[in-house]
């Protein structure tokens, strides 16, 4: 039928394929190849094929504890960044002129500061004779210095600081495109501020929230530098175990297995988020 | 009242009464001590160029903005400080602002849900609203699947289903193409008349205002220049601003040379013109006449003004033909004829006449 001929023109290699080819080739060499080698290492014991790496990672109480700790770190960091980042993204999207420039700088400048510099900064603020203890003591809030550095609280604060921009940016980009007359329209229909938020603003901002959550969680669950610098061996994450396995223990199979599990977690989150995004983007109704 | 004989229905107990509304954005005075009263069941258009304050006034009435000064009453109740969701004032937004994440029926039912109307009461009301705008077949469709005209119908149904005491429409036809716009203007007017609601249209399109309104408020710089029914607005504009904003006209500047009882003679570039009015001799004035009030030829019964002008351009508009007269700015001339007689071409001098009563005189700016 001529109709089918119109809707399905003959396929031939087009410009799009050519445009994406260099990037694909690059990723193939620097990403896919090492990834396959990693998967290969995870199932190769001293005596040939072995699932011993996975057995240890998934069976050993210590490694399970590490995984749980990593997930906990990812969840708390993501939750904290969402609580702080969601209203911040709205403020950023609604601000005009200088206010927007200043807010933008406040939220995104920390990204430009090296994580090492930031960690030492936190040390100066948080340590026993640091600025925070000094201030609280002089204000009479505390009798003697409080231990803050090398505590989980400090770790979460640091993690949220590092990953907050990754939560704010996707939410901001969605909120900025949102039609501000939609909540207005809801108001004229008799919707209270809470009803407007839960039935209009929140649902429309969800694509940004899903993107922000998936990016922040994937980054936080695999964090290495921030927990190492802020907690050291007191708080082991999956990435830290991996590094230890590869660098200190020379136990490639263990490291590769842990890496594969971490990868599986990240892929699950990213694919799940992509599916959710698509569902949210599809308007309801026929 | 301000100078220029602005007649605004203040004091008349209106269904909607705005008095002394003033609103500033920074240094800009957007509403300047504006007052207007609208009777129950009346359709009033707020007509003016962008930046004249018409949308600001609409947002103040809807409760989306609070005026710096002044009061807003609906049905006698002062709603000036009431938030939008407690006002029961419906709004059809420009480009409709339909909820993209909800279906047609969910959009229409939104207000009922927000106001806590029980499902079994809401369902028949949504069905009735769908029927009213002839969208029954599209109840479960996505908003994005609708045409512009259908979206407008949904927006109207969504606003009407909660039975507002007043309906505000912000440039409701601007998103539609010309042909559809004309159809929807008539359709919407009939629909709102059927519902019996008081409605206020905001528009910058004078033709649209003439079609849909019982009365038109021409706005300028945060004030109402004139509030009148379409025929009066067109036939007796209170100022040059209204004359120019609504319809076309021939405009000639001149000086009053003779005064009689209620009539004056003005010397213009096209000769002496008699017009009704009382101005001091020597006053600089502008005399204007609407295009269709002018006829070709000098054979018109007494008391007529006779002039001769050169034709600069001829525009054929289908049902009528326009002659643009060759005049020097700021004078300009346009004449409309039902049909063009033979032998008239650009460059030709033509005799024209019009009644004294059709001439309008304004003080020169």
Automatic annotation (TrEMBL), chain A:
<keyword id="KW-1003">Cell membrane</keyword>
<dbReference type="InterPro" id="IPR035906">
    <property type="entry name" value="MetI-like_sf"/>
</dbReference>
<feature type="transmembrane region" description="Helical">
    <location>
        <begin position="61"/>
        <end position="86"/>
    </location>
</feature>
<comment type="similarity">
    <text>Belongs to the binding-protein-dependent transport system permease family. CysTW subfamily.</text>
</comment>
<feature type="transmembrane region" description="Helical">
    <location>
        <begin position="209"/>
        <end position="231"/>
    </location>
</feature>
<keyword id="KW-0813">Transport</keyword>
<keyword id="KW-1133">Transmembrane helix</keyword>
<dbReference type="Pfam" id="PF00528">
    <property type="entry name" value="BPD_transp_1"/>
</dbReference>
<feature type="transmembrane region" description="Helical">
    <location>
        <begin position="154"/>
        <end position="175"/>
    </location>
</feature>
<feature type="transmembrane region" description="Helical">
    <location>
        <begin position="98"/>
        <end position="117"/>
    </location>
</feature>
<keyword id="KW-0812">Transmembrane</keyword>
<feature type="transmembrane region" description="Helical">
    <location>
        <begin position="20"/>
        <end position="40"/>
    </location>
</feature>
<feature type="transmembrane region" description="Helical">
    <location>
        <begin position="252"/>
        <end position="276"/>
    </location>
</feature>
<feature type="domain" description="ABC transmembrane type-1">
    <location>
        <begin position="67"/>
        <end position="273"/>
    </location>
</feature>
<protein>
    <submittedName>
        <fullName>ABC transporter permease</fullName>
    </submittedName>
</protein>
<keyword id="KW-0472">Membrane</keyword>
<dbReference type="InterPro" id="IPR000515">
    <property type="entry name" value="MetI-like"/>
</dbReference>
Automatic annotation (TrEMBL), chain B:
<keyword id="KW-0067">ATP-binding</keyword>
<keyword id="KW-0813">Transport</keyword>
<dbReference type="InterPro" id="IPR013611">
    <property type="entry name" value="Transp-assoc_OB_typ2"/>
</dbReference>
<dbReference type="GO" id="GO:0005524">
    <property type="term" value="F:ATP binding"/>
</dbReference>
<dbReference type="InterPro" id="IPR008995">
    <property type="entry name" value="Mo/tungstate-bd_C_term_dom"/>
</dbReference>
<dbReference type="InterPro" id="IPR050093">
    <property type="entry name" value="ABC_SmlMolc_Importer"/>
</dbReference>
<keyword id="KW-0547">Nucleotide-binding</keyword>
<dbReference type="InterPro" id="IPR003593">
    <property type="entry name" value="AAA+_ATPase"/>
</dbReference>
<dbReference type="Pfam" id="PF00005">
    <property type="entry name" value="ABC_tran"/>
</dbReference>
<dbReference type="InterPro" id="IPR027417">
    <property type="entry name" value="P-loop_NTPase"/>
</dbReference>
<dbReference type="InterPro" id="IPR003439">
    <property type="entry name" value="ABC_transporter-like_ATP-bd"/>
</dbReference>
<dbReference type="Pfam" id="PF08402">
    <property type="entry name" value="TOBE_2"/>
</dbReference>
<dbReference type="InterPro" id="IPR017871">
    <property type="entry name" value="ABC_transporter-like_CS"/>
</dbReference>
<feature type="domain" description="ABC transporter">
    <location>
        <begin position="16"/>
        <end position="246"/>
    </location>
</feature>
<protein>
    <submittedName>
        <fullName>ABC transporter ATP-binding protein</fullName>
    </submittedName>
</protein>
């Amino acid at each position: 039928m001529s109709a089918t001929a119109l809707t399905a023109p003959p396929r031939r290699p087009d410009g799009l394929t050519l445009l994406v080819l260099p990037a694909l080739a690059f990723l193939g060499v620097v990403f896919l190849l090492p990834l396959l080698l990693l998967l290969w290492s995870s199932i190769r014991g001293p005596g040939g094929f072995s699932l011993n790496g996975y057995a240890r990672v998934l069976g050993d109480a210590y490694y399970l504890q590490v995984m749980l700790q990593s997930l906990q770190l990812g969840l708390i960091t993501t939750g904290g960044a969402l609580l702080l980042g969601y209203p911040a993204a709205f403020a950023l999207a609604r601000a005009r002129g200088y206010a927007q420039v200043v807010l933008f700088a406040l939220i995104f400048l920390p990204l430009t500061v090296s994580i090492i510099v930031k960690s030492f900064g936190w040390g100066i603020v948080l340590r026993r004779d640091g600025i925070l203890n000094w201030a609280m003591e002089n204000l009479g809030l505390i009798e003697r210095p409080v231990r803050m550095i090398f505590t989980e609280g400090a770790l979460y604060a640091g993690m949220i600081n590092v990953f907050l921009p990754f939560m704010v940016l996707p939410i901001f980009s969605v909120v900025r495109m949102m039609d501000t007359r939609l909540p207005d329209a809801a108001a004229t229909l008799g919707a209270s501020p809470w009803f407007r938020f839960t039935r209009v603003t929140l649902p429309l901002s969800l694509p940004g929230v899903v993107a922000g959550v998936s990016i922040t969680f994937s980054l936080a669950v695999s964090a290495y530098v921030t927990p190492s610098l802020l907690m050291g061996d007191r708080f082991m994450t999956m990435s830290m175990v991996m590094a230890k396995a590869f660098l200190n223990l020379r136990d490639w199979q263990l490291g590769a297995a842990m890496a594969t599990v971490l990868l599986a977690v990240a892929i699950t989150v990213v694919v799940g988020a992509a599916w959710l995004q698509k569902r949210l983007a599809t308007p309801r109704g026929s | 009242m301000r100078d220029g004989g602005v007649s605004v229905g203040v004091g008349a107990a209106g269904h909607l009464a705005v008095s002394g509304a003033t609103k500033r954005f920074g240094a800009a005075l957007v509403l300047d001590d504006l007052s207007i009263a609208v009777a129950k069941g009346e359709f009033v258009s707020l007509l003016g160029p962008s930046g004249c304050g018409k949308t600001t006034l609409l947002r103040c009435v809807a409760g989306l903005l609070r005026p710096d000064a002044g009061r807003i009453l609906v049905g006698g109740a002062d709603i000036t400080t009431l938030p939008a969701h407690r006002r029961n004032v419906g709004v059809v937004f420009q480009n409709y602002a339909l909820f993209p994440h909800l279906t047609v029926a969910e959009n229409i039912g939104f207000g009922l849900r927000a106001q806590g109307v029980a499902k079994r009461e809401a369902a028949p009301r949504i069905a009735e609203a769908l029927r009213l705008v002839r969208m029954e077949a599209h109840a479960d469709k996505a908003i994005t699947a609708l045409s512009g005209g259908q979206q407008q119908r949904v927006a109207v149904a969504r606003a009407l289903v909660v039975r507002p005491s007043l309906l505000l429409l912000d440039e409701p036809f601007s998103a539609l193409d010309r042909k559809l716009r004309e159809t929807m203007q008539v359709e919407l007017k009939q629909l709102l008349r059927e519902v019996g609601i008081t409605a206020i249209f905001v528009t910058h399109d004078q033709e649209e205002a003439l079609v849909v309104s019982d009365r038109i408020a021409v706005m300028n710089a945060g004030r109402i220049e004139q509030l009148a029914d379409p025929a009066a607005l067109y036939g007796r504009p209170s100022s040059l601003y209204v004359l120019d904003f609504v319809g076309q006209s021939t405009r000639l500047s001149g000086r009053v040379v003779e005064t009689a009882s209620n009539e004056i003679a003005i010397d213009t570039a096209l000769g002496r013109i008699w017009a009704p009015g009382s101005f001091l001799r020597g006053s600089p004035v502008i005399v204007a006449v609407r295009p269709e009030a002018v006829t070709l030829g000098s054979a018109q019964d007494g008391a007529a003004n006779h002039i001769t002008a050169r034709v600069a351009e001829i525009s054929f508009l289908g049902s009528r033909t326009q002659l643009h007269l060759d005049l020097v700015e700021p004078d300009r001339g346009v004449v409309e004829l039902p049909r063009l007689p033979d032998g008239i071409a650009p460059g030709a001098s033509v005799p024209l006449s019009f009644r004294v009563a059709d001439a309008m005189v304004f003080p020169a700016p």
